[in-house]
Write a structure and sequence with these properties.
Blueprint lengths: L1 E5 L5 H9 L3 E2 L2 E3 L5 E11 L2 E10 L3 E5 L9 E9 L18 E5 L5 E5 L5 E9 H10 L4 H8 L5 E4 L3 H11 L8 H25 L10 H16 L7 H7 L4 H12 L3 H19 L4 H7 L5 H12 L3 H10 L1
Parallel strand pairs: 1-6
Antiparallel strand pairs: 2-3, 3-4, 4-5, 5-10, 6-9, 7-8, 7-10, 8-11
């Protein structure tokens, strides 16, 4: 397990680079070989809005702890569009639900956010840091409802989580696939960023009007509990895995645990664990560093026949066939 801490918004990539001993210059962070592969880039789009674009795959489980400790006037909102295994920005018509855990997170600076990133899982994120001053200027310009503005000004921690609606997926696709490098490029990205902010604010406002207003609200304590669940799900072998034992170890009722997990991840713990394990196995096969037997053992299967069966059920081909296709490509 590799632990990363974020305490600043202004320069958090530089902060992370020091912790992982990575090269960082001109807003560009290269993931070091000892941790995995990939890169993360930060752009200052306009005063009050920063864009982070990242593609990476860690070779170790990583726990990211975000607890902002800086001056009160630096009030940045975090708007995160994350993709695991299936990148919906590749196509405007991709089904976002096919991904392992594709979702939108929007939270204020008072929210303590933790994230667990399993080893050997391809991960992509598009993240915006938006200052309070900038987001209030947007709400004023578009004459947005006062009830929404009061949420943005609140000193209480809040976080909303959503699946990808088509409208947001379409804008992300346009933004990430815009290749022009001219005088209009920055203006185009700023325009699309404001469109994404508006669409996400619309989701929050719709929540407030809905009778089930807390459906997409995520409590801080729940995030911490879910991180523990995710870690323990991957620590156990296939033979050791038991939801009853997991609930007992975490001192939480099994029904509450099942309900909370499914509400956040959109699937039960057994399905989530299987998807994680199979995506990890797929990535290990693609890297061609380990044998099929070693990969099966690394993802919790002591019985290689059982591993091959589950892999084929998930991907439609056996691990050996998948490896042969990779070699032929």
């Amino acid at each position: 397990m590799f632990n990363l801490k974020i305490t600043k918004t202004d320069n958090h990539l530089k902060e992370l680079a020091k912790q992982v001993d990575a090269n960082f210059s001109n807003g560009f962070l290269e993931v070091p070989d000892h941790l995995g592969e990939g890169r993360v880039i930060m752009h200052q789009l306009v005063k009050g809005i920063k864009l982070i674009d990242g593609d990476f795959c860690f070779h170790k489980d990583v726990l990211i702890d975000r607890n902002i400790d800086e001056e009160s006037d630096k009030q940045y909102f975090s708007l995160i569009y994350s993709f695991e295994s299936h990148d919906v920005t590749e196509s405007a018509t991709n089904n976002a639900s096919q991904g392992l855990e594709n979702h939108i997170l929007f939270f204020n600076r008072h929210y303590t956010y933790n994230a667990f990133v399993p080893a050997y899982t391809k991960y992509k994120l598009v993240q915006f840091f938006i200052s309070l001053k900038k987001i209030l200027a947007i709400t004023e310009y578009y004459n947005l409802p006062k009830s929404l503005i009061s949420i943005l000004k609140s000193d209480k921690p809040w976080c909303y989580k959503y699946p990808f609606p088509f409208e947001i997926q379409r804008v992300l696709h346009q933004m990430t696939n815009y290749k022009a490098n001219n005088l209009f490029a920055e203006g185009y990205l700023i325009n699309k960023t404001e469109e994404l902010i508006m669409l996400t604010l619309e989701k929050i406002y719709s929540d407030q009007l809905n009778e089930d207003a807390n459906k997409n609200f995520v409590h801080q304590d729940d995030i911490a509990l879910l991180n523990e669940v995710e870690k323990k799900l991957l620590e156990l072998s296939q033979e050791e895995f038991s939801i009853n034992k997991l609930a007992e170890d975490l001192s939480v009722g099994i029904r509450k645990l099942q309900r909370l997990f499914k509400a956040y991840h959109g699937m039960d713990m057994t399905s989530y664990r299987k998807k994680i394990r199979m995506e990890q196995a797929k990535q290990m096969i693609l890297e061609q560093r380990l044998s099929i037997t070693e990969i099966g053992y690394n993802v919790g299967y002591s019985n290689i026949s059982n591993f091959s069966k589950v892999f084929k059920e998930h991907f439609g081909v056996s691990p050996s066939s998948f490896l042969n296709k990779k070699k032929e490509a």
